[in-house]
Amino acid sequence: MRLTHWLFVFCITLSWWTAEQNAMDWHRYSGYALLGLLVFRIYWGFAGSSSARFANFLRGPSGVMTYLRESREAHRDAGHNPLGGWSVALLLTLMLSQVAIGLFVSDVDGIESGPLSHLVSFDASRTLAEIHEVVFNVILTFVGLHIAAILFYLLVKKDNLVIAMLTGHRRNVRVKPMQPVPAWRILPGIVLASGVVWWIAN
């Protein structure tokens, strides 16, 4: 999951840069890569290790309020706390929406188009292109909040989450160990993600 996290960072940055440089071929490839990563991450949220599973870090309103009211130091599970879990879910939803919309957009001249743009009218594809830009700005806002939260943990709580996302271990914080799953479970996710991307791209 750590590798997936950093690949998300790379692909979002690449998508922004290619759009700014009008390198639309590479923009399309980065979109396909993001789509594959999202499909794999959703699969891994059900079949992956304990810290990656949605059921282990998504809590209802009462669970989030309990976490906020009580000592936050009580959360010692590997992975996201109840509040961070919903921020992850929101970011995944935004990225999935962004990629899905991008499949249908066309540029002003109708030359550069998403692989599914033929399924909608040109006017609709142009409207979706505007929404595509707006959603990306929303994603940037939440990425900024994500970075702010990391800095808060680093400067106030003295908990370096960047190191944790690189090494898989949190320094100075004792947590319950992650429950891994057999390595073979990665393969169906890769096959599923590759199949979805190939089907849409072709």
Kindly summarize this structure in a few lines.
The chain has 202 residues and is mostly helical. It contains 8 helices and no strands. It starts with a helix and ends with a helix.
Structural topology:
Layout: H1 2-20, H2 24-47, H3 54-57, H4 61-69, H5 82-102, H6 122-155, H7 161-167, H8 186-201
Helix pairs in contact: 1-2, 2-5, 2-8, 5-6
Could you explain how this protein is built, in words?
With 202 residues, the chain is an all-alpha fold. The protein has a single domain (2-201), classed as Fumarate Reductase Cytochrome B subunit (Up-down Bundle). The protein contains eight helices and no strands. It has helices spanning 2-20, 24-47, 54-57, 61-69, 82-102, 122-155, 161-167, 186-201. Helix 2 crosses helix 5 (82-102), helix 2 packs antiparallel against helix 8 (186-201) and helix 5 runs antiparallel to helix 6. The chain is globular, with a radius of gyration of 19 Å. It starts with a helix and ends with a helix. The model has no long low-confidence stretch (mean pLDDT 85).
Average of the residue pLDDT scores? 85
Largest sheet features: none
Number of structural units classed as domains: 1
Task: Please state roughly what percent of the residues sit in beta strands, choosing from under 5%, 5-15%, 15-25%, 25-35%, 35-45% or over 45%.
Answer: under 5%
Question: What integer value in Å does the Rg equal?
Answer: 19 Å
Please give the number of β-strands: 0
Structural class: mainly alpha
Distance between the termini: 28 Å
Globally, the shape reads globular
Structure annotation, total helices: 8
